[in-house]
Design a protein that fits this description.
Radius of gyration: 15 Å
Distance between the termini: 16 Å
CATH superfamily: START domain
CATH class: Alpha Beta
Shape: globular
Order of helices and strands: HHEEEEHEEH
CATH architecture: 2-Layer Sandwich
Strand order of the largest sheet: 1-2-3-4-5-6
Number of strands: 6
Number of domains: 1
């Protein structure tokens, strides 16, 4: 739960400039489509400028229902994820919780390519992605609640 109403949480999710403030490794966002807010067809590039995960990915909004759900497709990256997975989507949903709180869910959908990637996914990639999603949601919570 995030101790804030849906409107406040959604505002943080829609504002692409805030991604570096809550994402664990992204430090810069480039506005590929020239827009700074999520919306249908909006594309942006998330940049990790240093460290073990140095690189970038381009995400494009493929579904957007204000104050309910936004889904992005990964359309390019420097890490090779496009070669490892087909149809990589990330879906963020919000719903009102009790006492003016908000529940946020972050889910990823993808198809590992080939036997080797299915094996790698089962051994460690899935856990790594779950950990990254949790860290992202924890960062969003800190930002929205005024602690970040």
């Amino acid at each position: 739960h995030i101790a804030a109403p849906v409107a406040k949480v959604w505002e943080a999710i829609e504002d692409l400039s805030l991604i570096p403030r809550y994402h664990p490794v992204v430090r810069e966002v480039e506005y590929v489509s020239g827009q700074t807010r999520r919306g249908p067809g909006v594309a942006y590039k998330c940049v990790v400028p240093e460290g073990r995960q140095k690189g970038w990915c381009v995400e494009r909004v493929v579904e957007h229902i204000p104050r309910r759900k936004t889904t992005v497709a990964f359309s390019g990256d420097s890490w090779g994820m496009g070669r490892m997975f087909d149809e990589f989507l990330a879906e963020t949903t919000v719903e009102a919780g009790p006492e003016d709180t908000t529940l946020v869910h972050l889910k990823a959908y993808y198809i590992p390519r080939g036997f080797k990637m299915r094996l790698v996914h089962g051994l460690f990639m899935r856990r790594m992605m779950c950990k990254r999603a949790k860290l992202t949601l924890d960062g969003l919570k800190r930002l929205v609640e005024g602690q970040g």
